Amino acid sequence: MGQRLSGEWRGWRAAAEEALYGADGFYRRPEGPAAHFRTSVHASPLFAAAVARLLCLLDEALGRPAELTFVDMAAGRGELVAGVLDALPGDVAARTRACAVEVAGRPPNLDPGIEWLAEPPEKITGLLFANEWLDNVPVEVAEADADGVPRLVLVRRDGTERLGEPVTGTDAAWLERWWPLSAEGARAEIGAPRDSAWAAAVATVERGLAVAVDYAHRAEARPPFGTLTGFRAGRECAPVPDGSCDITAHVALDACALPGARLLTQRDALRALGITGARPPLTLASTDPTAYVRALAHAGAAAELTAPGGLGDFGWLLQPVGVPEAALAGLEGS
Question: In terms of DSSP H, where are the helices of 88-231?
């Protein structure tokens, strides 16, 4: 079986689906994603605190419902949902239904109050938050041939690639609309499955807000050779679809956006939620050295989360559902 698969040519979507989510896939491995790459969630508890702040703002906009749902999409080992619960005021936490959505099994020692689900619940009143989920929704890769015709890129289990048939149908229409290719060797990830996945996730929200946070690009600045890559043991590596590494590609969030959505950077979103990275005044060092050191560490963590050229450049896609635009008033400073 392994030998047959190693020599089989497939599109990147099928290859990555098996490599990431198959029976022996990367995301089912016991060590969890945090052993291989660092997200904003792992960088600092300030990220969970900011998401908790967003949930509180939404709670007020929703009129403080009897049950406020928080859904953590692609929850890893539950780090974000646990951090958000810890950061919520007691009265809000008491009304919060916390749900983690993940393909892997429930981790041990997770708060028993957190629901562990394979799919998001229906009719959510609250916040669905997808941090670095869409970049792992597998997609096809296209490359323009010598005549400028976009063709599917086929791959074997060992990562060897070749060009296949021309892109047709809905994939061709998506490329033409969102990421046209013409120059020989130009590459793109065809984001239609991500658009569909995001629309399905948003559809579970009856009243509230859906947020996608990810490596992103927009139509005016698409990368000319695509962004497909891998991560293993904390280092970027070649994307080899054998289950040994993460396989990821940046997200065309502008294509995912539904009517009424807002797009902004993580830097702007977190600053509006109180994560600024401002250094404490030096006078504090002499009047309260312990508080100064604590504030300095806080500033350093905030600076990493909002850094240009790093996590601060992540895209945030905010999709309100059944709430007035004023529900996002807490982010108007962005």
Answer: 90-95, 169-178, 192-203
